[in-house]
Specification:
Distance between the termini: 39 Å
Structural class: alpha/beta
Number of domains: 2
Order of helices and strands: EEEHEHEHHHEHEHEEHEEHEH
Helix content: 25-40%
CATH architecture of the largest domain: 3-Layer(aba) Sandwich
CATH class of the largest domain: Alpha Beta
Strand order of the largest sheet: 5-6-7-3-8-9
CATH topology of the largest domain: Rossmann fold
Bound molecules: adenosine-5'-triphosphate, magnesium ion
CATH superfamily of the largest domain: P-loop containing nucleotide triphosphate hydrolases
Number of helices: 10
């Protein structure tokens, strides 16, 4: 089922800046969609349009069939948003913040507390539950902000750079939580990030945006085939380490045979598809070339 759609979605700010230029998107339920693009590409603008914080200048978008520009409150009831500037209360404890936001969404006190404690535990904040938010570190605050976005059990979760301030262990925790939400509850995730390795670990689909335009969208394999034909073979032989491009895995045995036949020794061979990072830069590069 398609749960998020954008059709020719366009945003021109009052300044005249065209932040989004007729973008089209379609996301299925339970997908973890990585929305990738350089600074200023239009990612946050898209999140704001999809949550009714901004209205489109042209085109349209919908979340579970709801138009966020017309009835933002209906979208807010089923969506959770984590941004850098999540509003929470510094003078309340972590637990009290979560319970407060639970009550805002009409969740009863007991249920709010149960959910709050569950997320505090999963995000390793249980020890800090009675500490005031004002005393939280940046990474703790980011994790609490994720718990806050989940307290009303949203069907779709928007994450705008959720792990930018997190240490590797906390980022792993957040990753695992996001994956399990998608797997166990069918929660759809819209993840904006520049951290490509992190995205590659958890995303099931990707969209690449640059200067307000979508460059490509699809699975890793689909994006791969837009810019690369074959795969890379990492080979270490008598002459040292090198990367060799081949069309398919089938070429590997004959490649090794040629080296051995000519008296070389092969110590290591591994064929791999290009990483998301390589695909990302190749796509950006390709766009720049065609623009010139
Ligand atoms: N309120 C605004 N008024 C005018 N221009 C804006 C406004 N907000 C954003 N922009 C511009 O729109 C473009 C897209 O900004 P946006 O914040 O959506 O990018 P982003 O992809 O989220 O970038 P980042 O990775 O840095 O967060 C940028 O050129 C930005 O300067
Ligand atoms: Mg942004």
């Amino acid at each position: 089922m398609e749960v998020l759609a954008a059709k020719n979605l366009t945003k021109v700010y009052q300044s005249g800046k065209k932040a989004l230029n007729h973008i089209n998107l379609s996301i299925e339920e339970g997908e973890i969609f990585g929305f990738l693009g350089p600074n200023g590409a239009g990612k946050t603008t898209a999140v704001k349009l999809l949550n009714g914080i901004l209205k489109p200048s042209d085109g349209s978008c919908s979340i579970f069939g709801i138009n966020p520009g017309e009835t933002p409150e209906k979208v807010h009831a089923i969506s959770g948003v984590v941004t850098e500037h999540a509003q929470m209360y510094n003078n309340l404890t972590g637990l009290a913040n979560l319970m407060f936001f639970g009550s805002v969404f009409g969740t009863g006190e007991e249920e709010s507390k149960r959910r709050a404690l569950e997320y505090l535990e999963r995000l390793e904040l249980l020890e800090a539950k009675d500490q005031k938010l004002g005393e939280y570190s940046t990474g703790m605050r980011q994790r609490l902000s994720l718990a806050r976005a989940l307290i009303h059990q949203p069907k779709i979760l928007f994450l705008d750079e959720p792990t930018s301030g997190l240490d590797p262990e906390s980022a792993l925790n957040v990753n695992n939580l996001i994956k399990s939400l998608s797997r166990e509850k069918g929660t759809t995730v819209f993840l904006c990030t520049h951290q490509l390795r992190y995205a590659e670990e958890i995303c099931t689909k990707y969209g690449l945006i640059s200067e307000g335009s979508m460059l490509a969208a699809g699975s890793l394999d689909e994006l791969h085939s837009v810019v690369f034909k074959g795969m890379t073979v990492l080979l270490r032989d008598t002459d040292g380490e090198k990367n060799i491009e081949v069309e398919s895995e089938e070429e590997v045995p004959s490649l090794v045979k040629r080296i051995v036949d000519s008296g070389g020794r092969v110590y290591h061979v591994s064929a791999h598809k290009h990483s998301l990072e390589e695909i990302y830069f190749a796509l950006l590069e390709k766009t720049k070339r065609t623009a010139v």
